[in-house]
Amino acid sequence: MEYSKLHHPTLRVLHILETVCDSDKELTLTDISNQTGIAKGTLHPIIMTLAHERYLKIHNSVITIGQQCFKLGNAYEHSLDYLAIIRPHMREIVSQCDEICQLGVLDGPDVLYVEKTEPDQAIRITSHVGKTLAASATSLGKALLSGLSDEAIRTLYAEGLTRYTEKTTVDIDMLLTQIAAVRANGYAHEIGETHIEVECLAVPIRRENDILASMSVSLPIFRSTPEKVQSIVSLLKKQAVRIEQEMKMIPVNNMDISYKK
């Protein structure tokens, strides 16, 4: 749909919610106004309405996400029928490799983390369901992008690639070379691109001809060895095949295929 045909007051409200949701620090009305470009006079009644309806919460002038947003997110999670199939396989992966396992779907140029299973490790990777990262910099994202054409990927990142560390891929041709390797090898491998001390491997999960999601294992680089990496790749591939076989029993209309903005 053309941007000119969208309802701009609604877009303004969504932009406010996304700004509060994406922030890793406390925000005031002034902060939100500065970040969204919405004048305080216009912003204030919107914020107060969202707070009244519990989509936002205001405490000592600090504005945070409210419980209604949690309910919406939880409803989305319950709509993902395939999570019930995938979760036991994620637990099996963690039990065998003792590292965190994560599940992601494509959200425009980003990967949205929709599930995780953590190991019982003294030193482990921290992760948050509901967060997004640039798909171009993550193994989860690269596994998801492998289902798109090179032309579609170029369009998706027409404004450039996000850098997180000095190892992050920021050249589109290099990214496409990496995506080609994912298609050829059946898995993505990223070292230090989003967190300098973290290594991650991921495989796509397919539903018929579409990539529905991707599943990964992340580990601190100091625990990585060539043998462990190969073991994790084999484990991820084996469980992905089993998941895909089980998902054939679910009607396609119950599946939420990766969303692209």
Biggest pleated sheet: 6 strands, antiparallel
Figure out the total of helices: 9
Number of strands: 8
Strand share of the residues?
15-25%
User: Helix-strand pattern, N to C?
Assistant: HHHEEHHEEEHHHEEEH
Shape: globular
Helicity level: 40-55%
Task: Briefly characterize the structure.
By secondary structure, this protein is α+β, with helices and mostly antiparallel strands. It is 44% helix and 20% strand.
Main features:
alpha+beta, single chain, two-stranded antiparallel ribbon, 8 strands, 261 residues, 6-stranded antiparallel beta sheet
Structure, described:
The chain has helices spanning 8-22, 29-36, 40-52, 67-79, 83-97, 139-145, 150-156, 172-185, 226-247; strands at residues 56-59, 62-65, 100-107, 110-117, 132-134, 188-191, 198-207, 210-220. The protein contains nine helices and eight strands. The strands form two sheets. Strands 5-4-3-8-7-6 form a six-stranded antiparallel sheet, with helices on both faces. A hairpin with a 2-residue loop joins β3 (100-107) and β4 (110-117). By secondary structure, the protein is of the alpha+beta class. The termini are close together. Mean pLDDT is 88; it is low at 254-261. The relative contact order is 0.12.
